[in-house]
Each structure stands twice: as C-alpha cells, then as structure tokens.
Design a protein that fits this description.
It holds the Pfam family A_deaminase. GO terms for molecular function: hydrolase activity. By secondary structure, this protein is an alpha/beta fold. The chain has a single domain, classed as Alpha-Beta Barrel (TIM Barrel), CATH 3.20.20. An eight-stranded parallel sheet has the order 1-2-3-4-5-6-7-8. Helix 1 crosses helix 14 and helix 15 runs antiparallel to helix 16. The protein is globular and about 55 Å long. The structure holds adenine (ADE) and zinc ion. The site of zinc ion (ZN) has 6 residues, from strand 1.
C-alpha cells in the first residue's frame, strides 16, 4: 500500500546525475556497440564493485563506466532508460545533471552530450508528460579554467540549459574557487546550484550561498553541524536536495535511522528527496522515499517533501501549479 502511494505521489527529482543512472547491463551493451572494453569481466563483476568506502571510491568507478558513453544515441538511450523508470515511479519533472568535462576527456563534445539528452527529454515529454531540463555541472577537482571554458562553449545555447552545478570530489575544493564562473553563469541567465556539505564542511554551504549565489544546495547534510548554517537555510529558504540512500552507501551517514534529514526537516529546512546516482546506490527515487517510510517517516511528511521538490524546482510557475494541484488530489486520496 505504501509503495503504491509513493509511486502515485507526484514529485520532482532535482538531484540526478544522468551518468549515475547507467545500469551495468546498459554499460556493457554500449561498450559492445562502441567497440570498447570495460575493465570488468561481466555485469556481475561490475556489480560486485558497488561497495564504496567514500565519495572518491565511488567517483573512480563512476568515471570508469562513463567511458562507454560516446555518441548522441548513447546519451539518448541512457536518459530514456531513466525516464521510463521515472515515469513508473511517478516523477513528473526532472532536472538532470551531466558532467561535460568528463565526456570531453573521453573525446565527446558537449554538443553531442546535450543533443542526446535533450532528444530523450523531448521524448519523455511527449511519451510520459515528464517536464524538465539539464543542469551542466562543473567538476570541482578539474582546473577552474576548464570550467570557465566549458561554460563559454555553451554560451550560444543557454536556452538548452536550466542551469549550472558543481560536483565531484568536494573536500579541498571550496566553492569560492568557482566564484567568477558562477557569476558568468548568472549573467547568462542560468540557474545555479552546487554540491556542498556532502563530505565537505558546513562552511562550504555558506560559501556556495554567499559567493556563488546558488538557489539550492545539493546534499547539504552537514548543515546540522552548525546552528548558524541551519538558521541561514531556514531564513533564506534555501532548499536542500537530499539523497538518503547515496549518503548511506558513500558512508557520509552510518545508517538511514541516523540520517540528518530528520533534524533538517524538523528545523524547517526545505528538504527534497532524490536518488543522486540510482544505478550505483541501490535505488531510484521511490526506493529512497520507501526506505524513509521504513524508518518512521509518515506518508504526510513524505508528501511534504514531494511538495517541496515541486516548489524548489526550476519548472515554470504554471507547471508548478499544475503539479501542486495533482498533489492536492493525491492527498485527498491517500491522506483523507
Ligand atoms: N554524490 C556525488 N557527489 C559529488 N559528485 C558526484 N557526481 C556524481 N555523484 C556525485
Ligand atoms: Zn550528486
């Protein structure tokens, strides 16, 4: 019953690395299609590697698997796979992260990546009614000049992007490094988000808000270590895109029952639930909601987080109203 309710719950996914939805089966079929070898014998051996000690141990595998993505069709197939799944899980709007600098290092131009992903999003809209768009992420452990050049390379097609983000290895790469790049993204009319406070300190959350002018924080769970940061998030109504199963799998949090989400939610921080890299972390969005239901979050609380996901999205106001109305109807059915 709860699972049906959670599937039916209208929701947005705001923290999804599309490359993190690459399932092992698709990775091997794309490798074969492109005449490439993966450094794993088969799907089972790859799955056995899904044991992570921390963010970096995951990123090493994630970047290795990304090498199979080469053509526009690969990116379209990848995103279509995700969108089919998202449709079954009741996702009505999705904002997809992608890492163009990593693809460029594999010889794939940013336009190929974007064209493939946009083609899937168009199909997702016509087939499933899912709205959404792309958020180009800068890899924070690559040089800032590379981020700046990547941004300039898409400056002529910012209409094809919702915004920019900041991801990859966090500790030692403070957000302030990217101040000028984010300022330029703002001039180009792009929305801004950044991963902060996943493994890095709560101070990175403040820096992202004050120096990068972000509109949302991705993860942000270490905010609970500072009352001042919690107060800022509540006061300035900065939403967090929390990824509970990811945090457990990357050992940022010991177990779900000890996840800072409860403290954040009870303090009045605008929290949303997301999957991050669903192929790697044992679950898509509904699996995250469902796992929370299993550690005493009520259906009403989960519906509030879904409502937050719609409000915190970069969807048009008309689309937000439409989705909030759908959520009102869901509440009548499931909450009475
Ligand atoms: N959880 C995560 N944190 C930082 N960078 C990422 N890239 C993909 N997943 C990520
Ligand atoms: Zn992420």
């Amino acid at each position: 019953m709860t699972l049906d309710a959670l599937r039916a719950l209208p929701k947005a996914e705001l923290h999804l690395h599309i490359e993190g939805s690459l399932e092992p089966e698709l990775a091997f079929s794309l490798a074969a299609r492109n005449g490439l070898e993966l450094p794993f014998a088969d799907v089972d051996e790859l799955r056995e590697r899904y044991e992570f000690a921390d963010l970096q141990s995951f990123l090493d595998l994630y970047y290795a698997c990304m090498t199979v993505l080469r053509t526009e069709a690969d990116f379209r197939d990848l995103a279509l796979n995700y969108l089919e799944r998202a449709h079954r899980d009741g996702i009505r709007h999705v904002e997809m992260f992608f890492d163009p600098q990593v693809h460029a290092a594999n010889g794939v131009p940013v336009d190929v990546v974007m064209d493939g992903l946009l083609s899937a999003l168009e199909a997702g809209l016509t087939r499933f009614g899912i709205t959404g768009g792309l958020i180009l992420c800068f890899v924070r452990d690559l040089p800032v000049a590379s981020a700046a050049a990547t941004l300039e390379s898409v400056a002529h097609r910012t209409g094809d992007l919702l915004g920019v983000g900041l991801d990859s290895a966090e500790v030692g790469y403070p957000p302030s490094l990217f101040e000028a790049v984010f300022a330029r993204a703002g001039e180009l009319g792009l929305h801004r988000v950044a991963h902060a406070g996943e493994e890095g300190p709560a101070e990175y959350i403040v820096e992202s808000c004050e120096r990068l002018n972000v509109e949302r924080i991705d993860h942000g769970i270490r905010a609970v270590e500072s009352q001042a940061v919690m107060d800022m998030l509540v006061r300035d109504r900065i939403p967090l895109t929390v990824c509970p199963l990811s945090n457990v799998r990357l050992r940022a949090v010991e177990h779900l029952g000890a996840h800072p989400l409860r403290q954040l939610f009870d303090a009045g921080v605008i929290v949303t639930i997301n999957s991050d890299d669903p192929a790697y972390f044992g679950g898509y969005v509904v699996d995250n909601y469902s796992a929370l239901a299993g550690v005493d979050y009520t259906l009403r609380e989960l519906a509030t987080m879904a409502r937050n996901s719609i409000a915190a999205s970069f969807a048009s106001e008309a689309r937000k109203t439409e989705l909030q109305d759908m959520l009102d109807r869901w509440e009548e059915v499931y909450l009475g």
